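Sequence, please.
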């Protein structure tokens, strides 16, 4: 789809300011008679015209004059335009993304020195696009979203700038496997096109995005009617290689290889540019890979990879590297498969490209399994399963969004044709249909997921120790989740909310309910991952302690501290690892204390180990046991043993000592002064 909007780069950059460009002869004729900023603008227009014609010597000549006169006249906006032109020259002459990015940032530096912000959204769009090409997706999203906001706020708002920003954002979400945000972004684009009155583009878009969504979900037969209509009607005369190849790919995966081959054979490589040829090569290679004709597929991938690398296109480079890795793995050339898969992952991991990470881990897992290197196979298998589940979850949400959007379009079209129909009846039918589709999909997803897990576990059945360890870890993690969300906590929390309401303490009830719902959401989110950043674990712990303090009328204070040098955003820990010990300290140590208590939690790193020290000044374990024996309602935290087992599994087989140490604290006279728990985890960085 991005190829649909691919017009000459310099036309995009200068479209708004120089829509009425004169030809070169007219500009050269008028140049001697004008002065000051008008002359600089004329010089810049000459630069742009020569850039259209790719006459680079003339471009550099007039660019140099424009720069010198801008300096002489102190015309800052002239320096902005010069920097943008230099970026265009660099981009087309060398495909040097780093240097191009530097020149765009230079233009933004000049923008900051002038009140004339005209086309600053263009600079941010271009910056985001270059960062996207480098797979720096987080930075790219920030700049592209800023460009979009600046564009829609512009008094001379030109809706196609919205489209350029949103299409680049779509590319990022597509590569990351974030299908819900992909569809939401395209909905914004279609809405902008409708407001502009551009019916041709938005009707095209509605078909294209639905076909794309179902293709990404793996529902190729469902996607085909949308793109078939698009290809034979809406795309007449476009001749766009990217869309032609995507349609051929869809036919391939819909098990119509003969039809796919027909469209591949229509491609005329003699008339195509290197940018189009590279898409054709990789797409045709994937066609042969699908047919398991590996020797035929390999040269297509290798040649396409060379072109991608020449153009510094990391996204397509990653795609080709994965294709080559899969092909070498199928041919039994395992060393080459490992090499190419790891190269692809070196691009995919920083970009957070989940589908590519999943595919790379799958290749490595299968290769190491064939090589009988069980440790490596098991390691990459766990990573593959983790990413596979995340991608499947994203696909589930994407399908639901696509179903809803498709039926929303059908409903709108039906309203245009049959305005007298009952809206209530139509809405009811729509909801029933969506509910049925969602239910059917969820059942299919469960069956598919169980099938995948069973098939992969069978491949590692010979390694009983690793398999048992994996199953035990999964079981303990789920037990930990259930113990964290135990009925005691939920029941007591709801009772607290009820008490606040009955006492007409609405503000406290609202505060408690808000924090309680946020804690539930955090626990559910964190429990989906094997490891999470320490920062998120401490956030959920802090929220839990706030709730407990509020519920018990601030009978205790708490403090969470760690060294400033500790990178809590990069350190990885199992989710829900600290809360059981904090809960135990509150319920069994601090709640039985008459005066106000203190709970102190410290985090430190030493000798490649992560230490957590949880200290309370409660009544101590011995007195707590005495209270428990007299209490009719005993609060027993199963989470302690479960969590200790989880920590022990992380340590295995590194140490035989217990990873959790509990010390009784005492005063000088021997009386109980509280309890200290020390937890030791291996240091794991993201």
């Amino acid at each position: 789809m991005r190829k649909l909007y691919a017009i000459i780069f310099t036309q995009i950059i200068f479209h708004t300011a120089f829509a009425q460009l004169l030809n070169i002869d007219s500009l050269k004729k008028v140049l001697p008679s004008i002065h000051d900023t008008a002359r600089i603008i004329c010089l810049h227009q000459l630069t742009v015209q020569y850039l259209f014609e790719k006459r680079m010597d003339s471009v550099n000549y007039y660019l140099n004059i424009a720069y010198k006169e801008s300096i002489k006249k102190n015309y800052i906006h002239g320096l902005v335009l010069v920097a943008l032109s230099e970026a265009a020259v660099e981009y087309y002459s060398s495909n040097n993304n780093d240097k191009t990015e530097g020149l765009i940032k230079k233009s933004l530096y000049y923008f900051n020195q002038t009140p004339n912000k005209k086309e600053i959204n263009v600079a941010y769009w271009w910056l985001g696009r270059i960062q996207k090409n480098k797979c720096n997706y987080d930075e790219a999203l920030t700049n592209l979203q800023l460009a979009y906001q600046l564009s829609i706020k512009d008094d001379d708002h030109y809706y196609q700038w919205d489209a350029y920003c949103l299409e680049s954002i779509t590319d990022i979400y597509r590569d990351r496997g974030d299908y819900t945000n992909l569809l939401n972004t395209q909905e914004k684009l279609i809405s902008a096109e409708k407001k502009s009155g551009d019916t041709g583009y938005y009707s095209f878009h509605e078909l294209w995005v639905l076909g794309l969504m179902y293709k990404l979900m793996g529902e190729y037969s469902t996607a085909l009617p949308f793109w078939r209509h698009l290809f034979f009607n809406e795309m007449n005369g476009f001749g766009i290689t990217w869309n032609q190849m995507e349609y051929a790919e869809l036919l391939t995966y819909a098990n119509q290889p003969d039809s796919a081959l027909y469209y591949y054979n229509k491609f005329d490589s003699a008339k195509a540019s290197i940018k189009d040829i590279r898409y054709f090569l990789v797409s045709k290679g994937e066609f042969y890979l699908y047919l398991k004709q590996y020797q035929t597929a390999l040269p297509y991938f290798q040649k396409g990879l060379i072109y991608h690398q020449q153009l510094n296109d990391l996204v397509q480079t990653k795609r080709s590297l994965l294709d080559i890795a899969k092909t070498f793995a199928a041919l039994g050339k395992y060393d080459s498969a490992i090499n190419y898969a790891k190269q692809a992952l070196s691009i995919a991991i920083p970009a957070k490209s989940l589908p590519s990470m999943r595919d790379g881990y799958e290749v490595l897992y299968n290769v190491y399994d064939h090589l009988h290197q069980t440790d490596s196979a098991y390691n990459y298998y766990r990573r593959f399963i983790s990413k596979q589940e995340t991608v499947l979850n994203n696909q589930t949400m994407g399908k639901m969004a696509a179903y809803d959007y498709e039926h929303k379009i059908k409903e709108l079209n039906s309203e245009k044709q049959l305005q007298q129909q009952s809206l209530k009846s139509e809405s009811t039918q729509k909801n029933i249909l969506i509910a049925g589709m969602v239910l059917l999909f969820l059942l299919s997803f469960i069956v598919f997921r169980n099938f995948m897990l069973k098939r992969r576990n069978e491949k590692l059945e010979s390694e009983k120790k690793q398999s048992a360890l994996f199953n035990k870890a999964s079981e303990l993690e789920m037990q930990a989740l259930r113990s964290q969300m135990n009925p005691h906590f939920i029941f007591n929390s709801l009772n607290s909310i009820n008490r606040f309401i009955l006492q007409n303490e609405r503000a406290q009830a609202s505060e408690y309910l808000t924090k309680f719902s946020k804690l539930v959401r955090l626990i559910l989110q964190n429990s989906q991952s094997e490891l999470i950043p320490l920062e998120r674990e401490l956030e959920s712990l802090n929220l839990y302690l706030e709730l407990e303090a509020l519920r018990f009328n601030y009978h205790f204070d708490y403090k969470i501290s760690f060294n400033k040098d500790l990178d809590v955003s990069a350190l990885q820990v199992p989710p829900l690892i600290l809360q059981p010990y904090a809960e135990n300290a509150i319920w069994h140590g601090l709640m039985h204390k008459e005066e106000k208590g203190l709970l102190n939690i410290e985090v430190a790193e030493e000798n490649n180990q992560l230490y957590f020290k949880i200290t309370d000044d409660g009544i101590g374990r011995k007195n707590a046991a005495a209270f428990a024996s007299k209490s009719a309602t005993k609060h027993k935290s199963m989470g302690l043993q479960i969590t200790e087992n989880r920590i022990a599994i992380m340590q295995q087989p590194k140490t035989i000592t217990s990873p959790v140490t509990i010390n009784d604290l005492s005063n000088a006279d021997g009386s109980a002064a509280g309890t200290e728990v020390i937890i030791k985890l291996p240091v794991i960085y993201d």
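Confidence is low (pLDDT under 50) at residues 1-21, 234-239, 418-423, 632-636.
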